[in-house]
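Customer escalation, tier 2.

The customer says the design service returned an amino acid string that "doesn't look like it belongs to this structure." They asked us to rerun it and document both sides in this ticket. The original structure tokens are below, unchanged.
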């Protein structure tokens, strides 16, 4: 996956994404926290589809797309902290 980032003055940050399979996407992270997801057709520079996500919707989608749920990552971090605390106490 290839990701480029561009600042869009007055709007936010635009992340251009090309997947390994050649699918082109873009995510505009607005200054207000909203996200706009753009999906492009193969040969066109204009998006074929646009999806507007509120911050909580973007968080929910990110949780689904993440390779490991937040709860699993938190448990891993807790175990690491416990191990570090145990090492200091020895």
């Amino acid at each position: 996956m290839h990701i480029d980032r561009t600042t869009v003055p007055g709007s936010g940050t635009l992340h251009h994404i090309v997947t390994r399979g050649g699918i082109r996407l873009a995510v505009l992270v607005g200054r207000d926290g909203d996200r706009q997801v753009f999906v492009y057709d193969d040969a066109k520079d204009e998006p074929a589809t646009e999806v507007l996500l509120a911050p909580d919707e973007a968080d929910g989608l990110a949780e689904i797309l993440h390779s490991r749920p937040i709860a699993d990552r938190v448990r891993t971090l807790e175990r690491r902290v416990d191990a570090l605390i145990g090492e200091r106490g020895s």
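Tier 2 assessment: The sequence is consistent with the input. The mean pLDDT is 91. Residues 1-53 form one domain. Sent an explanation to the customer and offered a walkthrough call.
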